[in-house]
Specification:
Length: 243
């Protein structure tokens, strides 16, 4: 589908809020936690003939507004390199963008009574979407490692049930591992009593996933997704390079 950029605002040092609108948005029936795959540019084909599209994935912050109003809002982390970051920095109102969706398998576990969201700046949109969609009475905790204080104010974190805690360290994902794990342990959550959702830099997510698995969390109460990887651009279809 082709969507139009309707607004694009820098909301904090490292985040832009981009709104993409079009009739097809509502039909996607996005679930909280799902994303859209945006064509952010192209690169030369290996055989030297023509170009191939480069796509990046961004979680829709408020899927209910997407369905009701045909507007998909995404929070894009911007940084020095990368076609996705450059696309977000340059997208102007009225620009047309090719989008595929919905994408993503990590959605809210409806059977859980307690939900814990852990990740980095790029996970703010997903954590916001999922915690904002919980039924009343469901408990949630959010632990986010961010690099600048202003990113904590992105969107205004005002969900009544969301307990959000921000760990700020300009050094980024590697510096978050130990402290996020300590804060999680301080919550005193036992396997089987909550669903834990992880999203962000691949190394950070893999480390936290291993720690949780060692503590007894398994596929039934743990959802983990690497979004990007330090030192390596994502693949052309938006997945981080594994291995
Ligand atoms: C399921 C899924 C959902 C996602 N949801 C979101 C989302 O809601 N918001 C969001 O911002 N991203 C999200 N991502 C990540 C996003 O798709 C891109 O990977 C990210 O924007 C980087 O793309 P890029 O083209 O700018 O950089 P790339 O070409 O991937 O990377 C170029 C260089 O920049 C570095 N880099 C990449 N990202 C960052 C960063 N955030 N900070 C510092 N350095 C970086 C890389 O290490 C690399 O060296 C999601 C990814 C997946 C798979």
């Amino acid at each position: 589908m082709v969507l139009k950029v309707t607004t694009n605002t820098q909301v904090s040092k490292n985040l832009r809020l981009v709104e993409l609108s079009g009739e097809e948005v509502a039909a996607m029936k996005l679930q909280a936690g799902q994303d859209i795959m945006v064509r952010v540019g192209e690169k030369p084909h290996l055989d030297g003939r023509g170009t191939i599209p480069v796509r990046r994935r961004y979680t829709v912050v408020d899927p209910q507004a997407a369905e009701n109003e045909g507007r998909a809002r995404i929070l894009v982390g911007h940084h020095e390199f990368g076609l996705g970051s450059a696309w977000a920095a340059n997208a102007k109102t009225g620009d047309e963008t090719e989008v595929v969706g919905p994408r993503g398998k990590v959605v809210v576990d409806q059977a859980a009574k307690h939900h814990v969201f852990i990740g980095d700046t790029t996970f703010i949109g997903a954590a916001r979407a999922m915690s904002g969609s919980l039924p009343s009475g469901a408990k949630s905790d959010t632990l986010l490692g961010i690099q600048d204080e202003s990113d904590a104010a992105a969107l205004g974190w005002v969900e009544a049930d969301a307990e959000a805690e921000w760990i700020i360290d300009p050094q980024g994902p590697g510096a978050f591992i130990g402290i996020l794990w300590m804060r999680f342990q301080a919550l005193g959550i036992k396997p089987g009593s909550a669903h834990v959702y992880l999203g962000g830099e691949l190394g950070l997510i893999n480390s936290l996933k291993q720690m949780l698995e060692r503590a007894g969390f398994g596929p039934g109460d743990l959802s983990a997704k690497g979004y990007w990887r330090i030192g390596a651009g994502n693949q052309d279809h938006g997945e981080p390079v594994k291995g």
